[in-house]
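Handout, section B. The chain below has 211 residues.
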Amino acid sequence: MPVDNQGAAVECEFLERTMPECGLRFLGLRRSTGIPPYLAGMVTSRHPDEGRQDRIVGLHDPDRVAKGNVDWYELATEYGLFSEERRFLLSLPIPVVSEGADNSADDEPPEAVWGLVELLNDWDIIGKGGEVRITGWAYGCPAFVMSAVDGSVFVQGTMWQDSIGTAVLPVPHRVKALRDIARLNVGKPYRTAAENEDTLAWLARGDEVQA
């Protein structure tokens, strides 16, 4: 399933225009990173014994956006999400094309592709980021998946039944359960060729650490 280049170009234009509203600068899509976005989206399914750390704020807390922003930034800083230039990877939905299909219709779900972003001085990930549908689905409703540029930590924002939260997973390529999931996903028909390549590279990275 190749990426719809025209759709990707439109999406990139939208991201360049919209991201500054929540304090991010879009620096382009990044493929072949060796860091599968779908694995980074499994932080909240991991256990604290595997290294997961959480910060949560009550859904009805009147200061939940401010507190959620503080929690995200403190966790991201403590566990090394940011590069020296305050850059990191943010998972983004990019259109794909089905071979032989009528691509005027949305027959394929979007592919999760990393976007390289830079944190600006004036930012609002939990509030405005959700409002403009970059890091959430509404104001104060986070839904994001992030990774350090080197893949050393995954960060996920989500909503629970009565709270919002940010969860981090350091050195994810050393987490056995996540590696098991990666092995099970290799070659599956619902994984793109790019996802398979990234998964194999990610598993090889973990194998080198264990050797």
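Note. Helices lie at 5-18, 37-40, 64-78, 128-131, 176-185, 193-210. Compare this with the example in section A.
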